[in-house]
């Protein structure tokens, strides 16, 4: 991994851990952070030694939003371009052919909530705070929040959160489906890595195609979604992993899947 000004990176086995590291601004996303995250995820996509990713923040925030100081001066053209830049990063993470787990350690507001939502799974610290405060700043969520939030929590709750700009805690975020699990702060990263390792112990192509089926299916109608599911399943029945997974079950032993 290259060295980045606003990120830190470490690898535990096959799990890459990306930390947004701009704690003085509560890890706010300016163009540099977004561009560096995009660079890091492109490197990870191409790196066979990384099977899954945990994304987290340094200090007391996950990401406290898009950088308000940077946005305050933007023209309409610049504002639009900044949103397109952020949206592209979210799309890149969402479609990464590897699982990305958000370990939300603190504030996940605005662009931070949107970044967490672009990840496959969200684990949160008991101290995490979620919200979309944009309408209080005269804008709307612009890194995909108006689209991903209703897909996760439903239309009514998304409108409630976006219109009211209310900040909610981790347990409430879990209750509405914005977060999958909540852990004590000191256990969060370890639990995220453990989950990544559990996922990596499963058949890699199966996990990757399940990700594709879920994501593509949510962007289309049910008939098209299940057709994609059947095609993906057909591919999986041609793999050594399918023979191994089912053979191991019948032989009452643990499956040993090909690494990738
Ligand atoms: N953009 C730019 N800078 C930010 C930021 C953001 N989204 N969020 C926090 N910061 C900066 C603050 O300006 C402050 O910088 P300073 O020390 O140079 O003054 C520093 O991070 C610490 O934040 P501070 O507000 O002092 O911490 P706090 O504990 O009092 O409050 C928050 C924490 C998260 C509640 C508060 O920072 C906040 O509301 N941030 C903005 C959240 C937001 O609206 N995000 C959506 C943007 S679209």
Write a brief caption for the model.
With about 260 residues, the protein is an alpha/beta fold.
What can you see in these coordinates?
By secondary structure, the protein is of the alpha/beta class. It folds into 2 domains: 7-200, 2-enoyl-CoA Hydratase, Chain A, domain 1, CATH 3.90.226; 204-250, Lyase 2-enoyl-coa Hydratase, Chain  A, domain 2 (Orthogonal Bundle). Helix content is 49%, strand content 17%. The chain contains 11 helices and 10 strands. The chain is globular. The model has no long low-confidence stretch (mean pLDDT 97).
Strand content: 15-25%
Specify the oligomeric state.
single chain
Shape annotation = globular
SSE arrangement, N to C: EEHEEHHEEHEEHHEHEHHHH
What small molecules are bound in this structure? coenzyme A
Mean pLDDT equals 97
The secondary structure category is alpha/beta
CATH level 3 topology of the largest domain: 2-enoyl-CoA Hydratase, Chain A, domain 1
What is the correct CATH architecture of the largest domain?
A: Alpha-Beta Complex
The CATH class name of the largest domain reads Alpha Beta
- Strand sequence of the main sheet, in spatial order? 1-2-3-5-7-10
* Number of E-state strands: 10
Q: What is the count of helical runs?
A: 11
| Estimated radius of gyration | 19 Å
CATH homologous superfamily heading of the largest domain = 2-enoyl-CoA Hydratase, Chain A, domain 1
Helix content: 40-55%
How far the N terminus sits from the C terminus, by CA atoms, comes to 20 Å
Which parts are unreliable, with pLDDT below 50 for 5 consecutive residues or more?
none
Q: Major sheet, described briefly?
A: 6 strands, mixed
